[in-house]
Amino acid sequence: MSEEEEIILSELPDDELVLQMHDDLYDGLKEEIVEGTQLLLDRGWEPYDVLTKSLVAGMAIVGEDFRDGILFVPEVLLAANAMKAGMGILRPLLIETGAPKLGKMVVGTVKGDIHDIGKNLVGMMMEGAGFEIVDLGINNPVEDYIEALEKEDAQILGMSALLTTTMPYMKVVVDTLVEKGIRDDYIVLVGGAPLNEEFGKAVGADAYCRDAAVAVETAKELMARKHNTHASG
Prior knowledge:
single chain; CATH 1.10.1240.10; 5 strands; 9% strand
């Protein structure tokens, strides 16, 4: 791109700036996302509107292309990282304004497993969709999950495993929730390369999510269903 063509974000009207941010997010341009986020706030935008219209809407495009095989994990991680930089500015402001959250999710890789790229991706995409994320990291025993769910007052538990040897541990966690009589309080999502739909059912999860984009769609759907049941119950 030659000098003359360089886009100067501050000169763009709001609607064009938002579209440009979608492009920059797609391209994983961290500094531009930080600048765009700040510009919209300086122009009097509500933090929640900046989040939903520029970042969440932009990540939705990334999510769709990831699902359709147009984008791959490295590109999505770059986009998610740019999103994270924008969130760094917005998070404190959103907390102040008490912006609505879609829900809270505890996510972590199971005991014995130290893989985290898939889990990180799910966390970032879920945050990008407006969920609050509590990331427990890797190698989590059942106690860690339960303690976090209760302490954080979360509605969703996401577990990830990349090894066939650690997959069965997911059942240990779900069985413990059942024993404690709290299984129905949570939406349980499982994911990871060696898993499949059957396995998700076998361990007693609400859903198996083959990738981060599916995790976001599934979480939204199940949360909406949960609200409706509460409302009518």
